[in-house]
Structures are given as C-alpha cells and as structure tokens.
Design goal:
- The protein is mainly α and 205 residues long.
- The protein has one domain.
- The protein is 75% helix and 0% strand.
- It has eight helices and no strands.
- α1 runs parallel beside α6, α2 runs antiparallel to α6 and α7 runs antiparallel to α8.
- The longest helix is centred in the first third of the chain and has 25 residues.
- The radius of gyration is 17 Å and the shape is globular.
- The N and C termini lie far apart (54 Å).
Length: 205
C-alpha cells in the first residue's frame, strides 16, 4: 500500500467521523454552526489530544488544511442529505468502524515513532480512535459510546496490540498496520452484526 492511498484512506476516516458528528448534532437539532463544530471536534479531537499529550507540533491538522475542508464539506453534505433522507444507521456504523481502525493504527504508529513503551502506544491508539467521539457525546449530552457496554475502545486497543505483536515478529510495518486496522474493523463489525457487548457493571439490588 503506497503513501498516497494511505493518505486518502485517512481522509475517508476523517470524513466518516465528521458525518457521525453531524448526524449526532442534527439529532439534537443544533444550528448549522453547531453541526459544523461538532463535526470538527469528532473528526480531529482524537488526533489533537494525541498530539498534545505527545508534545507533537505542529498539530496534525495545522499542516494540512485539506482535512478541515473535507470535514466541513462532509458536515454540510450531511445536513443537506438528512433534510430529504433518513440516514442508514447500519451503514454509518460500518463506516465508523472502518474509520476507527484507520485512526487507531495511525495513532499507534505515531506514538511508536517516538520510541514510547508498548503500553503507551496502545493507549495512544485508543485515544486517537475514540477521543473525538467521546468529546462529541459529551457536548451533545450523551453517555459516550466508549463508556457504554459497546465493544468500541476495546476494538482499538486490541487492534493496536495486534499491530505491535506483528511488528515484534518481524512483519513489515505497512502490512502490520493494514492487518491491525482490519482487526479493529473486524472486531467492531462483529460487535455490530452479532450485538456483542461487554459485561455491565451492576450494583446488587
């Protein structure tokens, strides 16, 4: 897989998360500005928090204004679409799972490049993949998906672990990244398809 293709896949992931944010904001009946803000936060929140924690400058979207153009276009396009059509929920969840896989592994690769410990690499993968959605849900007064019983953050963590294991076994970095992303996607897709959940914490009655 060449670098241009990886870049376009990253843009796709950004667009998917922007659409997710726009749909959530639309359900809360926010105005155009509110929808765009939530879309931006959802799409770049994870990567921004990662870069701040790693003291990585400039922050990734400062270097590439195309990202913001994609986000705003996706947000406005979603607003127009939802005025005439009901969005297919399952299709969005599947696309979101794809974006989660891309973002989680890109976060792992960036942290790994700074020679951080495997534990921190895995944590940064989860932050990159989920922090944007976490912020979106908080701003929209929802319980964050990653804090519910859904298998979401767990998918990002496990995919990053697979990536590191493959790298340690001598697998090429790009191939390991592809497999790691695919693993995140597969875990999340299985959870969506078969309605798999993590155990809930319950107090005795």
């Amino acid at each position: 897989m060449n670098l241009p293709l990886l870049y376009y896949l990253d843009l796709f992931g950004v667009a998917v998360f922007a659409i997710s944010g726009a749909l959530t904001a639309s359900e809360k009946k926010l105005d155009l500005y509110g929808v765009v803000v939530i879309s931006v936060v959802t799409a770049i929140g994870g990567g921004t928090l990662r870069d701040l924690l790693l003291d990585r400058h400039p922050i990734f979207w400062f270097e590439d204004p195309v990202l913001l153009i994609v986000i705003i276009t996706a947000a406005i396009g979603t607003i127009i679409y939802t005025r005439f059509h009901h969005p297919p929920r399952r299709a969005l969840l599947i696309a979101d799972a794809f974006g989660l896989g891309l973002f989680a592994i890109s976060g792992a690769q960036i942290a790994e490049a700074q020679n951080l410990s495997p534990l921190i690499v895995v944590i940064m993968a989860a932050i990159t993949g989920t922090a944007g959605g976490l912020t979106r849900d908080i701003l929209c007064n929802e319980i964050p998906m990653m804090l519910k019983k859904d298998i979401y953050a767990t998918a990002a963590l496990s995919g990053a672990a697979v990536y590191l294991i493959l790298k340690a076994a001598g697998v090429d970095g790009v191939l390991a990244g592809v497999i790691g992303s695919a693993f995140v996607f597969a875990v999340r897709l299985a959870a969506i398809t078969f309605r798999l959940h993590q155990p809930e914490s319950q107090l005795p009655s």
